[in-house]
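Homework help thread (please don't just give me the answer)

Our assignment gives two proteins as sequence + structure token strings and asks us to describe the second one. The first is just a warm-up. Here they are:
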Amino acid sequence: MRVSDGPATATVVREFDDNALLALLLGPHNVNLERIERHLGVALNTRGNAVSASGTAAAAEDALQVLDGLYALARRQGHIETADIDTAVRMSRHTAAGIDGEDLVLRTRKRHIAPRTPTQAEYVAAMNRQSLVFGLGPAGTGKTYLAVAKAVEMMARGEVDRIILSRPAVEAGERLGFLPGDLKEKVDPYLRPLYDALYDMLPGDQVMKKLTAGEIEVAPLAFMRGRTLANSFIILDEAQNTTAMQMKMALTRMGEHSRMVVTGDMSQIDLPSGVRSGLKDALEVIAGMEGVSFVHFTDRDVVRHDLVTRIVRAYDRVERERKGNTEPT
């Protein structure tokens, strides 16, 4: 590596020893380098088997870290996708104390899942350490997906005996009798995202086997009432749509050697007007309690299509404007 400094810029040059991997790193017609340039505000140039990054000292070092990370990824998986570039850029400035160097990769039967944003890394680290974790923020940030991955990993290691996945069926008010079909057909539409995550991490026959054996249970929140769940990994999804009483009930289901992850988005409350969200209530009641972590995601953590991030930001902006217009003067 060679570094030359100007008045306000730096140039970092990295040489790569494998031309085939370098071609994967660059992408067709250097398209990968162009994406890194747009993200970090640097100029990237190639000469032979070397890539130079020019910009502010911090940006040039970030670019070098991204290039090194993507080169190592190309060696491991044999290809580089657009999402890999975005992940490397997001993580390049991640220096949260106590997280760097920790193994944050979640290993499931079908795939290994690594955090794609600094907040996701914080979230996984919290699930590694704490008995109760709240993941809070907008859709598309990986709150539920990572929680399911952690649960599947812990079951594979024999650290928990059961996985309990639950959400409040708010749209039906948890009064499901008027819906057609048997109980499973009534509640499945509300629980489909949880099934989707499971099938993404386990072979289909294994999902069905564990569901049949009761090792994995996917059920509406009302079905947790009166139970004590020991040696279990419990995920309460869409928790903003619980009432205060439901939230208290859910949190007190934890038994010995159990973990719980509660996810929710306070901007997506579907409760009837005047009903206080149990998630909002819990954030006030147990704030600062030992053994509990609160991880707050933002639109910067949205890892779906780029357009989803812009949509989330647009809605947030309009909501702030509307609130400002309704405030008394």
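The one we have to describe:
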Amino acid sequence: MTLSRRTLLGAGAAASLVPAMAAGQRRSSSNAARFSLAYAPHEGSFASRGGRIEQIAYAADQGFTAWEDNEAATRSVAEQEQMAKALAQRGMTMGVFVASMPKWSKSRPLLGAVDGAEREAFLADIRASLDVAKRLNAKRMTVVTGFMDPKVPVEIQTARVIDVMRRAGDIVAPSGASMVMEPLNTRTNHPGVYMQTISQGYAIARGANSPAVKVLADLYHEQIQSGNLIPTLDTCWNEIGYIQFGDNPGRNEPTTGEINYASIVKWLRAKRYSGVIGMEHGNSVAGRAGEDRLIAAYRAIDAA
């Protein structure tokens, strides 16, 4: 995950809509019916409709009941309050925002490294994010645990990451919110990161043993790194606090790649999952046609 990629649109042409997508549109040509799960678009998903607040309104009119904003913590207090008001007026749930993120150009922070200043800076990020979460009425905030230190045994790094996440959990837990640690793939996007799989996140969350320390299951990253999506979700379910969709290859909307999101939606519904599902991807087609295709794709998988 990076802070800028969510607003990017794919430049290539997408394949024709599958029949199920067309059927979904026929059942609800106005797209007014609410989706059965809380899929969360983000700024850029409906860029042709105007700015952030206009896009929130448009998303709500299409039946979406949640919203995601990675960059929320970087926005002014006034912007945060404006967004929170818009979501409340539409009865929409706020998904994640980024509470702590590595400085990608410097391959930092190194939470498992020798330098304890890195961990103290991470904890400062977490403290600062509590005010943002309160303004947005956000119950989940994303953290990325940084990069591997090639000079330190991985077991030592794991112990240090568990320690700092336990301390962060003590900071966050009284608020009722939780941090969700995001594993990232190393094969396509983020070589060198420490946390690379959902199962690794599960081990850290179990070690931290805090209701405020959970795992963000971004299925785009997991498909690239490990695959075996539904069995992994099932095994790690007790420590998963948030889910994000994105197809592979391409990191665009469901139905554009190899992941069978209809089956995953069906499985999540059987698990009675009521949390937010972040639409952590771009649109495969630029402009309004791509926005229409995005809605049709979610209608199709939601009909599973």
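TA reply:
I won't write it for you, but here's a hint about the kind of observation we're looking for: The mean pLDDT is 90.
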